[in-house]
Fold UDP-N-acetylenolpyruvoylglucosamine reductase.
Amino acid sequence: MQLLAEEQSLKRYNTFGIDVKARWLASFGSSDELGELVDWAAGRRLLVLGGGSNVLFTEDIDGLVLRNAVKGIELLHEDEEYVYVRAGAGESWDGFVQYCIARDWAGVENLSLIPGNVGAAPMQNIGAYGVEIRDVFWELEAWSLAERKVYTFTPGDCEFGYRESVFKGRLKGQFVILNVVLRLSKDPVFHTSYGAIREELGDREPSIRAISEAVIRIRRSKLPDPAEIGNAGSFFKNPTVPGEVFARLKERFPEMVGYPGLNGEVKVAAGWLIEKCGWKGFRRGDAGVHARQALVLVNYGQAKGKDIYALSEEILHSVQDLFGIVLEREVNIIN
């Protein structure tokens, strides 16, 4: 076991580019290494960090920050319809997606260019353009911090919801995801009706690669590159409201955007709500709302996490005041 330098900046390890410090910083590539580090950290604060693409640090971490570096992609087995692929939690998610596309394994092409690592995919139940990770999820292995042993989680065990799982709910902070197994299709079913995918495809025949490339173009046109401007993608979840509530709001705001959901509920576009409140393109110091996508909060360079958090609070209150809808943050606040 080798700890990295003390008082280590985490700026390069979170896509917001927030310059906070960790008292200690280390990485692990296996459950054995993880166990050693957890034993060393006994009595100290412990934070496990993946790709840093869905977190907002608001202050220094007085404890040990562990970076998940479990690597490897392996085809476990296959049948006539599916391949079962295991990926280490520390693998780049988009790198894994492109690995699958290159082998004509279908199911994750709509999730192209989502930042972060594989381990965050089931934790957040990531989703985009009509597809969620639970659609292709088979199982995962996670290490219990309390029992120092590995458990296998099936889809039912994970309790997937909209950008939710058991790892963000009742088991939050109790397990560290080591690897994920996905069941991908040899005979693809293309999802092109959501967003602008069909329009972006134009005359191209749908294929795994064509859809991936269309998604990448759409995302790049709407979302800022974290390498150029600090952000964590969508900062807020799209809220769901009862159908009758949406109908009343639609009378007041005819242009309001919503998508039918389960049990008569309607999912409302949070970005539209925020834009309607006048926040799109807003900037205060180096904290702001992106000019092309109001759902994305950004760090223009030297913003502190507390600045971005305060801005998100103002946005929450303004949306609630105008629409009576309470937004929920998708990004994890670390303080």
Observations:
- The longest helix spans residues 305-323.
- Residues 224-334 form a domain with the Uridine Diphospho-n-acetylenolpyruvylglucosamine Reductase; domain 1 fold (CATH 3.90.78.10).
- The mean pLDDT is 94.
